[in-house]
């Protein structure tokens, strides 16, 4: 994960994190003695209240790969802005061939997103959002693009703090 100065990293201590398995891939290594199979798992963890992270685990066993992915995800937790159970504003995130678009939605809309994006948004705690995935559907790149879009978002409090003005001045000019 690329972090800029405004992204707040979070330590997992004291947080009740739920994990979601996004994808498991079977990978093959061809050797002189034949094929050796292994597994790569990408996992998203979050407290469903603005803190989430993703991780990749690799092993010869599926369960061990998932466990390693969860441990890796706990090392990469970040705090992401949520306003009234939705995202603060529209944003686009790109990673590799994947491009995602997130738009805030009114209460009761639900998470209109599929696959890897849905797992990320639910782990963060977003309940109402309109999302679109364009380009590559590779789960690794979609997860990273979704995190990039979420990390670019700013809520009104962060904007006011960065500009050194009050919340009223943010909305009234």
Straight-line distance between termini: 34 Å
Fraction of helical residues: 25-40%
Percentage of residues in DSSP E strands: 35-45%
Round the mean pLDDT to the nearest integer and report it. Answer: 88
Major sheet size, sense and barrel closure: 5 strands, antiparallel
Task: Give the oligomeric state of the chains in this entry, treating copies of one chain as homo and distinct chains as hetero.
Answer: single chain
Question: What letter string, H or E per element, gives the SSE order?
Answer: EEEEHEEEEHEHHH
- As laid out across the biggest beta sheet, the strand order is 1-5-4-3-2
The assigned structural class equals: alpha+beta
Shape designation:
elongated
- Total of DSSP H or I helical runs spanning 4+ residues: 5
E-strand count: 9
Stretches where pLDDT falls below 50 for ≥5 residues?
A: none
Computed Rg: 18 Å
């Amino acid at each position: 994960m690329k972090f800029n100065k405004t992204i707040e990293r979070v330590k997992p201590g004291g947080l009740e994190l739920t994990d979601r398995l996004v994808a498991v891939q079977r990978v093959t290594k061809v050797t002189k003695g034949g094929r050796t199979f292994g597994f790569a798992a990408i996992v998203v963890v979050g407290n469903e209240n603005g803190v989430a992270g993703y991780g990749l685990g690799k092993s010869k066993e599926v369960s061990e790969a998932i466990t390693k992915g969860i441990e890796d995800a706990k090392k990469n937790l970040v705090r992401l802005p949520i306003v009234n159970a939705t995202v603060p504003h529209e944003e686009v995130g790109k990673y590799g061939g994947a491009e995602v678009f997130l738009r805030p939605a009114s209460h009761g809309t639900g998470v209109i997103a599929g696959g890897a994006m849905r797992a990320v948004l639910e782990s963060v705690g977003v309940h109402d959002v309109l999302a679109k995935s364009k380009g590559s559907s590779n789960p690794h790149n979609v997860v990273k693009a979704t995190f990039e879009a979420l990390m670019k978002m700013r809520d009104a409090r962060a904007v006011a703090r960065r500009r050194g003005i009050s919340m009223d001045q943010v909305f009234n000019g």
